[in-house]
Amino acid sequence: MSFMNASSLPSSPHTHHMRDTRNVMQWVIMATIPGFIALSYFFGWGTLINLIIASVTALLSEAFVLKLRHRPIKHYLNDYSALVTAVLLGLALPPYAPWWLVVVGTATSIILAKQLYGGLGLNPFNPAMIGYVVLLISFPVEMTRWINPVSLSADGQLPSLIESLSAVFYNSAAVDAYSGATPLDLFKNQSGLMTEQIVQQNTLFSQALFAGVGWEWVNLAFLAGGLVLLQKKIFTWHAPISMLVALFLMAALFNDGGSSTSGGSPLLHLLSGGTMLGAFFIITDPVSSAVSNKGRVIYGAGIGILIYIIRAWGNYPDAVAFAVLLMNFAAPFIDYYTVPRTYGHKKAERVDKRKD
Predict the structure, then answer these.
(1) Is 53 a residue whose pLDDT tops 50?
(2) Which three-class secondary structure string do you get for 1-41?
């Protein structure tokens, strides 16, 4: 998420109280705490290590580019925008990812996706999602190495702090013993099994209430944080709710009762992967999204539809990052047709420039 000063946006979700960027960023970071706690409880120390590496990298990268641009470093670092990008990327990356993976992704987000376009408020694409997609395309093996949640580990324990640090910085094989597939991975690679068979054969589902052990609670935790931001009017409901409704409807439409071609139930798609993190912390970025309420509804719905299409028929089990970036492309087009005209002006008419 990357926020501009309220005065620089024509119609932003946080101008209701004209709060400054620093205050907004602080609320966003605090709202991620429930999701961070859930990730740490189910998957161990890896998420905390990700956040520390990403935060340090983001601040150093931002300071480096600001120095090159002869801009006041302290002033821009104090707006917390670089830190928010680091937090969102660190939460999205697999725990126990190699340290260099986190560094590359975070530096890409800050230097290429944010500062290359001029800094805060000028980036057309969500910086955290640019970094995530670059890593997913370049290092697919490392980006899909998730571990089993604590209740499914062999001895009911997760890697210790020392084992976690060893895995991150020295590529130790200690964490490999804890590795497992995610709920979306299992449905993507179901090998022709019926949905009921997938559930029966995988404790990740059989021991869960809705959508996979651990994952459902992680998503509910991010939902809780997102509702806090909604209550604080950090953003409006239009984009996140339309995304979730569109994803739900697509999953319900193509669920087909659980055949071997089923893409999974609506609850699986809502409460697995990065759905709630994406809905409340990624697509609500006012810089790279549509600016009018009507535009946000279209923008969010487009993301929800694309998430299901890529998950069900694409090559990637989770698709939030790709869907967000594709709709970032479309945001200016959506704005052109949905931003209200100034009072007294008619809608723009297409001009035929052809000569007689």
Answers:
(1) yes
(2) CCCCCHHHCCCCCCCCCCCCHHHHHHHHHHHCHHHHHHHHH
Q: Which residue has the higher pLDDT, 48 or 338?
A: 48
Q: What is the DSSP letter of 189?
A: T
- Residue 74, φ and ψ in degrees, nearest 5: -60, -40
Burial classification of residue 172, based on how many CB atoms lie within 10 Å of its CB (0-12 exposed, 13-18 middle, 19 or more buried): middle
Average pLDDT for 298-312: 95
In whole angstroms, give the CA distance from residue 273 to residue 184: 7
Identity (one letter) of the amino acid at 288? Answer: S
Distances in whole angstroms, Cα of residue 59 to Cα of each of 1, 76, 86, 121, 174: 15, 10, 9, 17, 31
Dist CA 109 CA 261 (whole Å): 36
Nearest alpha carbon to residue 271 among 317, 314, 212: 212
Q: Which residues contact 306 (CB under 8 A, 6 or more apart)?
A: 319, 322, 323, 326, 327
The tokens of 269 are what? 């798609």
| Region for 181 from its dihedrals, namely left if φ exceeds 0, alpha if ψ lies in -120 to 50, beta otherwise | beta
| C-alpha distances in Å from residue 278, one per residue of 88, 268, 345 | 9, 15, 36
Average pLDDT of the residues of the chain: 84
Q: How far apart, in Å, are the Cα atoms of 57 and each of 129, 136, 270? A: 16, 19, 31
Query: At 111, which amino acid appears?
Result: I
In the chain, the amino acid numbered 163 is E
Q: Which residue has the tokens 């809705």?
A: 210
Label residue 203 exposed, middle or buried (CB < 10 Å: 0-12, 13-18, 19+). middle
Contacts of 349 (CB under 8 A, 6+ apart): none
Q: Whole-angstrom Cα distance, residue 258 to residue 279?
A: 26
Output 169 or 257, whichever has higher pLDDT: 169
User: Reduced to 3 states, what is the DSSP secondary structure of residue 91?
Assistant: helix
What number of other Cβ atoms are within 10 A of residue 254's Cβ? 16
3-state secondary structure of 171: coil
* Record: fold of 6-337: Ammonium transporter fold (1.10.3430)
